Design the sequence.
């Protein structure tokens, strides 16, 4: 069991965590689709605080002898999940930036060609 004082302290920390996430969401510093992962992590933290037996059950399910090792495995799993999500977001953004840069370059080339056509058309009229 978790001592009552520690449980209260951790509960306050998780509430502050949720307030911070919702503040970021409200200020549009985070998009909703990215916030969901952080909210799931907060819910799992809350479950672990109020039902520490779930950690024991999880550790036994995986064949882990020590509860602390089970907690470390759970934390590492969340970190890997968050890293994979952030990596996929960065990859998608990279592809969008590449496409946008290519489209911009093609438009810029087209504008230069049109300006050259306009300049050459205007010069031939001036010489007449």
Sequence:
């Amino acid at each position: 069991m978790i001592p009552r004082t520690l449980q209260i302290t951790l509960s306050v920390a998780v509430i502050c965590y949720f307030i911070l996430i919702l503040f970021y969401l409200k200020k549009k510093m985070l998009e909703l689709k990215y916030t969901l992962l952080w909210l799931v992590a907060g819910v799992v933290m809350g479950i672990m605080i109020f039902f520490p037996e779930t950690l024991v059950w999880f550790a036994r399910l995986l064949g882990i002898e020590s509860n602390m090792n089970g907690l470390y495995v759970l934390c590492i799993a969340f970190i890997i999940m968050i890293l994979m999500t952030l990596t996929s977001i960065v990859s998608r953004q990279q592809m969008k930036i590449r496409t946008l840069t290519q489209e911009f370059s093609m438009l810029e080339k087209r504008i230069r060609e049109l300006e050259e056509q306009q300049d050459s058309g205007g010069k031939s009229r001036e010489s007449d």
The longest helix spans residues 67-127. The mean pLDDT is 89. The helical segments are 4-26, 32-50, 53-61, 67-127. The CA atoms of residues 117 and 123 lie 10 Å apart.
